[in-house]
Amino acid sequence: MATTDMTALPLQQFIASLDSDCLPKILQVCSGVYFQGSIYEISGNEVCFSTDDLIKVIGIEALAVCCEEVDNSQKFELPITHTGLFKVVPEEMPYSSVEEMMSMRPVGLDSCLSFTFKSHTELRLEDFTVAAGNTFTVLYVDHQDGKEDRICCRFQGQQDTTALVYIPLSVCGEFTECESEEHFNLQQIISSPFLLSRRFCFVNTTMSERPLCLSPVYQVHAVMNLRKNILKFPSSLEVDVIDVTDTCGDVNFTLPLNLTDVFAKPAESFPSVIKILEGPGSSSLFKCHWLPELTVDRHLVFHTTQTSTMVLLSSLKSRKAQQYFLVSQEYGGKFRRRPREFNSVYELYVASMQVPGLQVTVTRNSEEVEEDGVPALSVGELLEVVRYQSMVLPGNSSQEMKQPVDVLLCQRLQDPQDRDDDDDDDKDDVQQQREEIVLPIFMQGHFVEVLTDNKKYSLRDLCGKHNLPLDVKLANRDSELKADPLAGLSSIRIEGLTMEPIILASFLHSPDICFEIPARRIYLSVSITTDPLPWPSGQPPKFCTETVTQVTDSFFYEFCKMLNSGEPPPPRPPKRNLTMTKSCKKSSSKHQKRSFKVEKSKHRQERGIPTKELADLTLSNKRRPPPPPPPLEMIDDYAPPVLPQKHEAAEKSHCKANPNTYVRMKEPPKDVSVDLDSDHDYEDVDETLVNVVRKAQENILY
Question: How do residues 3-18 score in pLDDT, each as one tens digit?
Answer without folding.
Answer: 445 688 888 888 888 8
